[in-house]
Amino acid sequence: MLSCDICGETVSSEPDMKAHLTVHMENEVICPFCKLSGVNYDEMCFHIETAHFEQNELERNFERINTIQYGTSDNRKDSSLQCRADINSSVHSACASNQPKISAQSLPEDGTLKHKDFYSENLTESRKFLKSTERQSDRTKIKESIYETMYSPPECPFCEKIEDNSQDMETHVKTKHADLLDTPLEGVNRVQCSRDLELAQQLQQEEDRKRRSQESRQEMEEFQKLQRQYGLDNSGGYKQQQLRNMEIEVNRGRMHPSEFHRRKADMMESLAIGVDDGKTKTSGIMEALYTYYQNAATDVRRVWLSAGVDHFHSSFGDKGWGCGYRNFQMLLSSLLQNDAYDDSLKGMSVPCIPKIQSMIEDAWKEGFDPQGASQLNNRLQGTKAWIGACEIYTLLTSLRIKCRIVDFHKSTGPLGTHPRLFEWILSYYASEREGSPKAVCTSKPPIYLQHQGHSRTVVGIEERKNRTLCLLVFDPGCPSREMQKLLKQDMEVSSLKQLRKFVGNLKHKQYQIVAVEGVLSSEEKIARRQASQVFTAEKIP
To answer: Residue 448: enclosing H or E segment and its boundaries?
Structure first.
């Protein structure tokens, strides 16, 4: 029995095989890989198996590589035979797709296929060579060539480890990097979460930037507000404010232009000589109070009054910031009436506010209170800067007036009250009391009283029938028309309401007082100037 190498059909005799082959040979044989033609079937088989073996094998079936690589020896043999059969099938398909050009008569009588450039001996040797590739060594070489061409050792995408084969690599990834294996949905979610986090961070950064900008703006506004409040905003001082406010009064029809020019002239004269013009002063109040307490005030058991003092109130030029200066004018007006201070205050009059500012600057230049001077930029003239107990102490000491600062730095009674403050003031005024008259007019100067945002002058203290204490204070915020009501012979009790301050009326967190105690020698002045380098105050409690 004979078998056809093209289709595998078996025939019983050689003539039948020739007839069978005629069907195959009527078509022109063309190489399916490089389009070679003009050769017979056996020559084409030899050409494909020698020139295109690897290309044909890989294109036909990629899975067969694994079978060749991992299968048993029997399987490898079967695969090699199958590969040969596939090549024949590929050639057969290529031949069947073309029009026939070779007839049966073109075959020799011996049934062999010949070409003018080839002999049967050569074809026989070629066929033997092809069959020899079925041997184990040749199959191994083919396998290694294909493996080297298509395969490189698999590398882990996470740690770059190299394994011998894909199965080992799959096991490695699943065991070593299971936490990195995401499903598609998990991957999308992770990307989305990352984007959301980035957006949230950007929004937070923008919000922080806006918050910092707003805080910075608020701090600047608060700082500017404090500058305005304490007169450090470079908007001018007493003179500028006086003129500006008088112009407003004229524009509103509350001041005649002639009055404006008259007041302006008086102000300029006062500033030139440095003496207060007296337009805000009210004198004689202490004498009127002494008379009132002697003849009336049935609810008062006893009262102690300071030495004579004039009341000064704020004007157009210092409204809103001049209380410290006006209280100094009140205190100084009392000292000027006391012969004990003539040596220190010889030839002085009550100065105007710009002059007081100049006097404090001079004290700073002498070396008093350098810390306070620094806080106020060593400058008061031409500003609306507030002054407090430290500046009053500095100015009095520079004038050789002996005084002390007492700091009532916290509440000493219920509901934030300061009963210790009242007791201290009582002991100050009642120390030289002789006898027990109802009204005592002492020789003690008034007391400068400071709290946050305002200052006043204490001119006396009442002891009520129920043993409670009540301070009598002059407030620079009280205008002259109200103070002049105290000068009437038939003074009403209601008029005293603006002077009286009971324990329950003083509830600020902290109070400071400046109390005058006499005159300093030149040596004592120098010692106090040195002590003021680090300013301290007596604290109660």
So the answer is: strand 447-451
